[in-house]
Amino acid sequence: MVKTIVLLLFTLIVVPVFTVYFDHHSMSPEQLNLLMESGGIALALALAAFVISTITGNCSQVDKMWSIVPAVYAWHIVLSADFVPQAAQPRLVLMALLVTAWSIRLSYNFSRRGGYTWKFWTGEEDYRWEVLRQRPELSGKWQWMAFNLFFISLYQMGLIWLFTMPIMVAATGDAPLNWLDYAAIFVTIFLLIIETVADQQQWDYQQEKHRMKREGIPLTGKYALGFTHTGLWRISRHPNYFAEQAIWVVFYFFSVAATDRWLNWSVAGALLLVILFKGSADFSEGISLEKYPGYKDYVKSTPRFIPNPFKK
């Protein structure tokens, strides 16, 4: 896990610098000011998450914001980017609407798992944080505080800001809506449906499994394995993770459509998100392998992310 953290922190610096080096298009003072404003919001939220999580002991403060703040960034740019050519303005609105749809869906899924309460600083904490607290290298008070500050709070909030920033680059382009925009809209909606179905299938499975456990009913049939493995989960071990990563990769192509530049600095967000999900899946599956005897066979027979619809 420590190696993954080091890799993520390294790439947070290297990837943006690399992409900026190859993207020589400069921003106007107004554009830079808007970029700094949104970055300031991200920094303030990261520090707030750190302070609240340190006081309460609940490190899922960033998790509460993950599904909300991209919509905040998107609409902040839409409403503030008065320098955008009129022909390009519909693209920004469409991007913000798609981010809002994503935000509502993910917030609902997080809420029904107990992530939000009227006391906003409480709520269910991701079980993986407690597992990490027990690691020898993170078990000390100051080690955990440093991890919370630099990775949970600053890194993750910085990543959320970065993968939303294609809308900032799109605001610098003057191209009207074109075929790439329409393709990105269609694919994004399709991926949102995939993610919704996958999360619902997992929710239904876990709800029924825990009901059977509470009532003392033996786990038989598909519930005997203990983990979701039917429906979309039959052709991918993490269909929801696949769709989530793909949504933000596709989101980047709006900036390509706006500028006609296939590589710009905002690609850093999507790349870093893919790296994060790789590390997150490694960690989660390590826990599942210890918990469920049948998970090893599932790993061997089912692809991790990209679904295989031809799997027998």
Structural features, described:
The protein is globular, with a radius of gyration of 20 Å. Helix 4 packs antiparallel against helix 5, helix 4 crosses helix 7 and helix 10 packs antiparallel against helix 11. The protein has 312 residues and is an all-alpha fold. The longest helix has 36 residues. The model has no long low-confidence stretch (mean pLDDT 89). The chain has one domain. It has twelve helices and no strands.
Helix count, DSSP H or I runs of 4 or more residues = 12
Amount of beta strand: under 5%
- Number of structural units classed as domains: 1
Helix/strand-derived category reads: mainly alpha
Radius of gyration from the CA trace? 20 Å
Estimate the mean pLDDT confidence.
89
Question: How does the overall form come out from the CA principal axes?
Answer: globular
Fraction of helical residues: 55-70%
Could you state the oligomeric state of the chains shown?
single chain
Question: Helix and strand string, N-terminal first?
Answer: HHHHHHHHHHHH
Strand elements, count: 0
Termini gap: 33 Å
Poorly predicted residue ranges: none
Q: Sheet with the most strands?
A: none
Keywords:
globular; mainly alpha; 312 residues
Architecture blueprint of SSEs:
Layout: H1 2-22, H2 29-56, H3 61-66, H4 69-80, H5 89-112, H6 127-133, H7 141-164, H8 166-170, H9 179-214, H10 239-259, H11 267-291, H12 295-301
Helix pairs in contact: 1-11, 2-4, 2-7, 4-5, 4-7, 5-9, 7-11, 9-10, 10-11
